[in-house]
Specification:
This protein is α+β, with helices and mostly antiparallel strands and about 100 residues long. The chain has two helices and four strands; from the N terminus they run H-E-E-H-E-E. Helix content is about 20%, strand content about 15%.
Length: about 100
């Protein structure tokens, strides 16, 4: 269930802006973010990623990750996502059936 919801969300996130028509002036675009974060919904879930900060924010806003989800960057150790400073994600408490 989580994997299906994640795929649906990522398809919406990765679509990006619509292409400009010939009558519109083309605006410079920022280079795409590189995905450097890997997540686990909980300690028993498989690793998923890589994700960019923007994708992590979308997952948090859609309540697909929560305060006890695990995160790592690159090949570092796993940490509870709520303990990682600087992400600024709108995290929720985990569902009652997911608290271990």
């Amino acid at each position: 269930m989580f994997a299906e919801a994640l795929r649906g969300l990522l398809s919406r996130v990765k679509k990006g802006p619509a292409k400009s028509t010939p009558t519109q002036e083309a605006k410079p675009q920022k280079p795409p973010e590189k995905g450097t974060y890997f997540i686990k919904f909980d300690s028993h879930s498989p690793e998923t990623g890589p994700f960019t900060k923007s994708e992590l924010r979308a997952l948090a806003e859609d309540r697909l990750i929560h305060k006890r989800s695990l995160i790592r960057s690159g090949k570092t150790d796993w940490y509870q996502i709520s303990n990682v400073k600087g992400l600024g994600l709108p995290l929720i408490e985990p569902p009652a059936d997911k608290i271990h």
